[in-house]
Amino acid sequence: MIFLVRLFALSGLILAARGDFDLEQAQRLAKSYNCPAAIQMARPLVLDSEMAKAANNLIFDCLQKMEDYETFIQEAREKLEEAGDVELALDLAKVYLKSGRKEEGNRLLEDLADHNETNLGVVLAFDREAPIEKNEKAVEALKRYLNFKPNENRARLALAKRYLNSGSPALAMKEAGLILVKGPLSKDLYLVLGRSEAAIGRLDQSVEALKNAIKMAPYEAEPYVALSKVYFHMGDFKKAEAAVVEGLAMAASPDEGNLLLLQMARLQIDKGQNEIARSSLLGLLKDSKVSEVAHYLWIRSFLEQKDYAAAEKELESYIEKNQGKSWAILARARLYLQSNQKGEAERWVNKHLGPTEYSKILFEFLENKNVQVAERLPAAMPKFFVVQKGDTLRSISRKLFGKPDLWEALYRWNREILTDPNFLREGKRIRVSGDDL
């Protein structure tokens, strides 16, 4: 009997050792990018209560590395139904976003932020991804966390950035100032301070803050670009260009250098050096990370030259390949106005924004740049829209707002009557306005 007990104990030790060995093997395979083999080896270990968590983590990490998002989503949802796991739910939200399912990702992040007020990873992820219409919710989430941990400066810096990006530079400076007193100091902190100072017109103080940002991160483009813009607003073109040249000399990667080349092109256009600007932009037009800004500056260079024929040709080509880019639609309207083709401008705006009162007022605003006209825009927004044959939420968003990206807001406002955002019945009346517009 004693022999049998010892035999069972020895068997358990051998099995445990075997399990440890298999997990280590799977981890080595994952590190060597042989994820399919790592997943295959880790699957049986999920049944072992002691190894289940580590095995599941390895499987989910591998699925992300392989960009097998559908399998990740399916398995993560099954696991979350069995037991709540905040970290897995957070990973699921990130995978939703990576795979283009933004609405589901943002909704999950918002739900996590509402129920995990003291989880820094959740709060920062929600802040990072929250669209502009969720600005107040992101601010509230950060403030709730800071009530719990007032010395957590990552959350405070995120709050300062959120204030700055939503047009409240004084509040941004207040939050950044609290970090400045206690530290730690960082490039991002000085960037927030520099941009906030510039936004309220304290340009000399902005320059000092941005120089400190450069000292903290001398190989990154962002501080040099920000400093160049401040010098430009001060009317000092020489220093604005010098900041870009210095940044180009220090840039640690082609991506950093491209951001600086965009800023140099802006300066060249403002100085009337449009052909030189286009030579700076030529290599950036096909770079997916900066191509939209590069095309905008490319077309602007022709407009500044009053070469309307060339600008129109470039805009036609760009709009054909990039439907719904609102800046391009409005640039084309301005082009018509600058060449005294008011009728064409109005027809163009109506074609892309729909023949509504909103598009009429928008056209008036484009023509006159009148602030009083701009103030009438929200009230003139149509409240409802009748779906036409072939309409989608994206096409309706493009007609009403000049860009397709607000389709998610349209779906949110009509969730009670739309079971599937990809299917709209002709003749259906949907809401096209909301408090978060």
Helical element count?
Answer: 25
Read across the widest sheet, the strand sequence of neighbours is 1-2
H/E series, N to C? HHHHHHHHHHHHHHHHHHHHHHHEHHE
> Beta-strand level of the residues, as a percent range?
under 5%
Mean of residue pLDDT values? 82
How is the biggest beta sheet arranged? 2 strands, antiparallel
Oligomeric state of the chains present here: single chain
In helices, the fraction of residues equals: over 70%
End-to-end Cα distance, whole Å, is 77 Å
Low-confidence stretches: 3-19
Annotate the secondary structure layout.
Blueprint (H helix, E strand, L loop, with lengths): L1 H30 L3 H8 L9 H14 L3 H14 L3 H13 L3 H14 L4 H10 L5 H14 L4 H13 L3 H14 L4 H13 L3 H14 L4 H13 L3 H14 L3 H17 L3 H8 L9 H14 L3 H14 L4 H13 L3 H12 L3 H12 L2 H5 L1 H4 L3 E3 L6 H9 L5 H7 L15 E3 L6
Antiparallel strand pairs: 1-2
Q: What keywords describe this structure?
A:
25 helices; 437 residues; two-stranded antiparallel sheet; mainly alpha
Question: What report would you give on this structure?
Answer:
The chain has 437 residues and is mainly α. Among the domains are: 1-66; 72-135; 321-380, no CATH class; 382-437, Membrane-bound Lytic Murein Transglycosylase D, Chain A. Helix content is 72%, strand content 1%. It is globular. The N and C termini lie far apart (77 Å).
